[in-house]
Amino acid sequence: MGPDWSLLPPELLEIIAGKVTSLADYIRFRAVCHPWRCASSPLPRHLPVQLPWLMLPYKLDGYDDYNRLFYDLSSSKIYRLHLPEIRGAKVCGSSHGWLILHKGMVTSLFNPITRATISLPPYTAVPSHLGISYCWDNDSAVGPTVNFYVKKAILTSSPLDTSCLVFVHTSTFWELAFCKIGDECWTVIEFEARWPWNKDFCDFSYCNGYLYAIHPYGKVTMYNLINPSKMFLDCKLHKDHVCLVDGVDRDALLISYGRLNYDDDDDDGVVQSEIEYTVYQFSNDGEPQWIEVTDVGQNVLFLGGNRHALSLSSANLQLPDWGANSLCYDSIKTEQWDQQHNYCSSSCNLYLKLGRLDNGTVVDLTGDLGSFQRNRHRENLWLTPSLF
């Protein structure tokens, strides 16, 4: 009979657990037996930042909205997670290891690893106002009959941190709002149609203590939430598809992107769709402007769907220096539109690539990850897996 590994001293098990750097391996370690679980912390602060998982679109073989697939870059594996908590909900964001879910008139936070859920204030509650945007209705709660949804949501830190703020961009006259965990109502930052250029904004991000909202052609509104104020910056950037990068600890970064479609060489009706991108850094020294950059230092950028982009320092990752000064993005293949028969495949095949920002070289990270519902492709979101 072999040794009984469950009888290892707790002190030794604690040392071993502290040497594990992969979150997936740490979960497996705690699942071995009860003594191993008791000897290891449920909130392991020693784990480095994990390479993100890509939440994949729904599979082509059926609409199953409570089982989701995640591709793990570090292990090159696809995990299928049974998540009944997200059934019927729209995933409107991914931030600091948590998914932001919206269903009906309620938004909540959900950790797909621990299955923990945190409720946020209902939108039907009368909000408070930050006082930097004109409000024409003192009772500006969202009515239950309004066609309401959240376009995008982000967190400033883990929601287990007492300083965490949750920001949302909504479809109603609350253009921008935020709350803290435990608040009874939302605080509205900006109301509808009060922009000096009369244009809705494209994206927003929190960076270096400021909330940035970007408008068509690169115009920016900066919000100071500590001393409530806002500043309009008439930057010019003639790009249609742009998104701000979350997780930046210096001046804001922006990715301008578009898809280039070309026929596959095999002449089989397949169209390859590749991302074409440029990265810009915001400069407010003198005249505010977006400056094209090809060097983001040790950072690696991840571009997902729904204007979701993430920056991580490769120096702090579980695989040090992985992807430094690069952008990770997807490539898709789909059948070509047949105008004669008014037909186009509902599927797309997904691949991941890594492009260097300084010299433009591209590395294929994966083979074919499978066939997915093409109309759900925009739901690709990057998740940095965490137990807290």
UniProtKB/TrEMBL annotation:
Cited SUPFAM superfamilies: F-box domain (SSF81383)
One family name in Pfam for this protein: Beta-prop_KIB1-4
Domain (KIB1-4 beta-propeller) ranges: 70-317
Top-rank lineage group of the source organism: Eukaryota
Transmembrane spans: none
PANTHER family, per the entry: OS06G0707300 PROTEIN (PTHR44259:SF114), OS07G0183000 PROTEIN-RELATED (PTHR44259)
Name the UniProt record assigns to this protein: F-box family protein
Biological source species: Rhynchospora pubera
Taxonomic lineage: Eukaryota, Viridiplantae, Streptophyta, Embryophyta, Tracheophyta
